[in-house]
Backbone:
């Protein structure tokens, strides 16, 4: 089996993806390389990439963008995986880099290790039931079918509780993934029986509010608090904010299981990321 066969599987089974514009593609490496092992992780950091190589994997499937680059003598980017990535293309822009920039070091390292990096974002975000938002809902204990689903959002009916108790319940669910605190904006005594759940950086609090939830769970990358925080205080609709990476960790676990099922003869390694920050008390 070759690296391209993995991407071809995504294309054959992801009817919800616009394959002309998607970020899901081979970001680095040889599409024709024979697959020895597949590593799955939310983010292609040096440590995660190194773990994959150490474990004998020559394919790295990432959910988020790969930041690596080559430059000319004046520091202009001449080759960069994110140029292929519509979500991150703007970051490259007209940026100039120094020769010791970490993006350049990462590109050199990838070339040395002959690692092929495939992005699986749009395919898995909206994969029914076990994709990113479905896996996140189940991790939080929302096992009944959602009332409404649209792209990155789900509306769930829960047993009525206060906002404070709801946050405590969520916190207990996410502690094993590495986050030991939650940001919340709103009246902690407010009664909640419907909650709108979101994942990713594209979660928009106004779109989520239209779902009809009495509180909104979204990610730190999905909001700007100087705007959304004021909106939450003015409307009385609470915002519960968790780390972007953490909210998608259950989806990375389910993706690894999915790949093991689809490609049973290929070793699959899931490299956890969880919450990418720590709170100091």
Residues:
């Amino acid at each position: 089996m070759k690296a391209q066969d993995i991407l071809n599987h995504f294309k054959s089974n992801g009817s919800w993806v616009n394959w002309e514009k998607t970020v899901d593609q081979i970001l680095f490496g040889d599409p024709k390389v024979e697959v020895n092992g597949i590593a799955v992780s939310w983010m292609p950091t040096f440590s995660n990439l190194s773990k994959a190589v150490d474990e004998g994997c020559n394919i790295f499937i990432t959910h988020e963008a790969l930041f690596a680059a080559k430059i000319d003598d004046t520091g202009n980017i001449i080759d960069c995986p994110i140029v292929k990535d519509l979500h991150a293309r703007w970051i490259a822009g007209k940026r100039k880099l120094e020769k010791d920039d970490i993006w350049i070091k990462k590109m050199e390292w990838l070339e040395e290790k002959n690692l092929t990096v495939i992005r699986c974002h749009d395919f898995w975000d909206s994969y029914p039931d076990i994709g990113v938002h479905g896996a996140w809902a189940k991790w939080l204990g929302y096992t009944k079918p959602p009332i409404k689903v649209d792209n990155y959002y789900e509306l769930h009916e829960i047993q009525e509780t206060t906002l404070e108790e709801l946050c405590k319940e969520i916190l207990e669910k996410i502690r094993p993934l590495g986050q030991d605190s939650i940001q919340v904006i709103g009246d902690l005594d407010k009664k909640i029986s419907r909650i709108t759940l979101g994942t990713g950086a594209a979660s928009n609090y106004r779109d989520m509010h239209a779902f009809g939830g009495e509180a909104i769970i979204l990610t730190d990358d999905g909001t700007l608090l100087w705007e959304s925080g004021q909106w939450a205080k003015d409307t009385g609709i609470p915002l519960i904010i968790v780390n972007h990476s953490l909210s998608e960790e259950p989806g990375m676990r389910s993706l690894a299981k999915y790949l093991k099922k689809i490609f049973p003869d290929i070793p699959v390694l899931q490299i956890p990321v969880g919450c990418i920050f720590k709170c100091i008390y």
The mean pLDDT is 92.
